[in-house]
Write the structure tokens for this entry.
Amino acid sequence: MSRSTDWVPSLWLDTFDEMLYDDNELDYGDEWTLNFNYSQTDTVTKEERKRGWKVYSHCAYGHFQCETCNKIWPSARVVVLFRYRLRGNRGTVIMRPFGQSCRRCRDDEFDLPGFSQKEVEEALLRLFRKIRKNCYGDEDEDEYDDGSSACSNKVWTKPHEASLCEACINGICCQDDE
Ligand SMILES: [Zn+2]
Ligand SMILES: [Zn+2]
């Protein structure tokens, strides 16, 4: 078992597969795969849009650990960005986790987030809901979540510091609710 401060792609891959093939979250007979890209942005060009690409940005609760000083911190504003499309009967999801840098070191190094299994499931559930709606035309059962910005976890964390957040620097961080 890895600590939840570690970025663990296999946790996402395994959970993705379990939810698809055990829980039948996307039960339309298509084959969906999850990939990672650590430099993608939320920009979808006209050309990409034509080819069916869409984006979904999710705000999650995760933990970080500084590689330099080992400091651990939680954040309720960890952005995970998904790009997805369905083409023929192949569905592709490309994910990018956004990092944060250490408040103490301020070394411009972004550490990648670690998540609990529950957070991963929550993120993927929301992603699948988007896919059902946008790729298969299924109505969204619960419209309370209109997508990008809802931080579902009301946990107290230190004030979010934009200069330490890779998503803020890229201009795609979750917006404040207030
Ligand atoms: Zn540090
Ligand atoms: Zn941010």
Notes: The beta strands are 31-36, 54-65, 72-87, 90-97. Helices lie at 9-21, 46-50, 117-136, 166-169.
